[in-house]
């Protein structure tokens, strides 16, 4: 039963704009006294009429500790680093104070530094691309597989995060050297004479994909979970193949997760230090290795600050461009503002 009394004339009761059942005749309703008085608004209406600025002030008070923490421990150090890069330079081991752009001119006028910058951008972009290709099947298995399969895949993806990145990098070092597991497998397949991958750009790429793959899988799995299964079923009923369902339904609707994962993987790879240092060494250094050498080995803090500023600028600019492109594609494919 609906809990509402029928009218004598057989018509259904009407509902007023407050959601109360409105009836006429012998039975009074909850909305009648309010209408009769004309002065007593329901409690919900009073709550809805509460002025917005008070809620806004409460929101600012809630986020104030986080904003203060970021200002003290993030914004201030970054601004100090930027100021150091333009307020001094090192000449023959002596720090010379004064406003100067020599650190940035030196960075962009030296072929070695430009090659390291290009290598960093290339490794970060390739790591992101390979991670996307590997992450989508794993994310679909987590989001659309059976509970048992989802748990196994999730544990397999997240388990390496329990191991320190130094240990994982040395593990890849033992696999990729001339007497490692990869060389043994190639020898069993009859492939001999191949050079070692250790201390090459490929070694850094392989290890970075392994280290940062979870940061691509989990945002994608979360985005795919939010896709209504009925949309995929409708596409299958209409005769779409599995690949077409993926390319026309799953891929467009999971673009927000792809954007988050790509931003994380690109940023972490571009700023990586331990993995490129162990597997690339001085033969394939990235910007992180160059920064360490300039600050700790050569004691050239202003130039190291300039390289760090360039790295942060590159990561922020690439992420902004990528997120903007993904947002445009998402709106074009789905018609939904991201």
UniProtKB/TrEMBL annotation:
Name the record gives this protein: ABC transporter permease subunit
Primary location class: membrane
SUPFAM superfamilies: MetI-like
Residues covered by the ABC transmembrane type-1 domain: 117-322
Membrane topology, from the record: Multi-pass membrane protein
Protein source organism: Paracoccus aestuariivivens
CDD domains: TM_PBP2
Family: Belongs to the binding-protein-dependent transport system permease family. CysTW subfamily.
Pfam families for the chain: BPD_transp_1 (PF00528)
Keywords linked to the UniProt accession: Cell membrane, Membrane, Transmembrane, Transmembrane helix, Transport
Top-rank taxon, per record: Bacteria
InterPro entries: MetI-like, MetI-like_sf
GO terms of biological process kind: transmembrane transport
Compartments where located: Cell membrane
GO CC annotation terms, alphabetical: plasma membrane
Transmembrane segments: 58-79, 123-143, 149-167, 204-224, 245-274, 303-323
